[in-house]
Amino acid sequence: MSIDFESLKDKAVVAAQTGVTKAKEFTESGIAKARELADSGVAKAKEITEIGKLKVSNSTEQEAIRKAYSELGKLYFAERGSAPEAAYADACQRITDALARISYNNERIADIKAAGHLSDDEVDAVEPEEVPEEPSCCCGGDGDPCGCQDGEDKPE
């Protein structure tokens, strides 16, 4: 049995060249796929970043609206708080009542400071205790007959 080494060598070279060609094709397709995935990832990251920026912008605009509503309410209360239109009477009354309680509390603070010979620095160093919020319901907890019971948020 005689082995034709030249034929085997030629077949090995062809097989090696075919393997190299297939490896190159596989590598090129892998690189192309990797680029495609990377480009897709970059595009998604840009979209997510843009969404994040828009959400931040929306939050900024919401804060601007909240401030404008507050200013509007302050202006209305300053101009019409003593004789508000019927739709605003309840809100104006709540503000008036709260301002009266603040005034009373400030008078009490002054009295306690004077009686205890306390300085502003001594009083300011004390952190106020956090008071838990009272439960509210859809009627604002003012006793209107909305169907709320015991501070529930919605009528049953």
Q: How does this model look, in words?
A:
The chain is mostly helical and 156 residues long. It has three helices and no strands. The longest helix is centred in the first third of the chain and has 76 residues, at 5-80. 1% of the residues are buried.
Give the count of structural domains: 2
What radius of gyration results from the CA coordinates? 38 Å
Number of strands: 0
Order of helices and strands: HHH
Taking all residues together, what is the mean pLDDT? 84
Stretches with pLDDT under 50, minimum 5 residues: 150-156
Distance between the termini: 99 Å
Total of DSSP H or I helical runs spanning 4+ residues? 3
How is this structure best summarized?
It is built from 3 helices and no strands.
